[in-house]
Give the backbone structure.
Amino acid sequence: MTFSIRPLSDVLAAEVRGVDLREPLDDADRAALNEAFLDRHVLCFRDQELDKPAQLAATLRFGPLDVHIQRNKGDEISLVHTVSNLDADGNPKPEAAAKGNLRWHSDKSYRTVPSCATFLYAVKVPAQGGRTEFANMNRAFEAYSAERREAFRGMKVVHDWVRSCRKSGEREASPEEASVYPPVAHPLVRRHPESGREAFFIGNHASHISGMDREEGEALLEEIEAHSTAERFVWRHQWREGDLLMWDNRCLLHRAEERAREARVLHRTVTRGTSPF
Ligand code: OGA
Ligand code: MN
């Protein structure tokens, strides 16, 4: 395939044009896209025409699928989730959108094996607003002094789904979720398994610091998150229908900017990551 890759900001993200994700990628295409992905952390493939099976097939070209305990029970197609703010009658209803997505997070960071890449495909999006925001956790880490970086390297952070649900006010975690996802300690600073770069691994699922006074650890996490999501580390994606956004949960935080008032429907797939180190 001949395609072009163009940075969308200084901080992160690139736009890819000329790729049809319904078609297979050869080794050279995949290598070029992977290099851009490692460098830019978010790839926006424009003008895609993907139904759910095609999105699933496209995702599997980049890695093995990550599954949810709640939803991997049906047929294969249910492995593609819908992110939507529509009510049962198909009308936009802001409160129908997930509250947890409004908090900075890294997908499934509360698992022992968190997600690798998330693929979000825009089916119906508002012309204005309803953006998704991303923050570069590698740049944020590098911006601290050498002393503080060294101190952070020795710390472990506990990620906890039950607590995350309480913090966002989304809902209570179900008993099944609570038993499948007990709190897990990850390195506060994780090394990217492919690029080797260090990045904070924090966000709403992060609860406190292992072995540190609880409140002190919570305050430290708040400080790091505030630092890391400052404007200079952030990029916002204004969606266009047909965009397939692929982002790297190993070195980014993301969140929904707001609960859009107009219809917003996206299809979501995720690839499985590896244990952070
Ligand atoms: C997600 C997510 C944010 C958004 O799908 O994982 O966080 O803007 N989405 O919809
Ligand atoms: Mn998310």
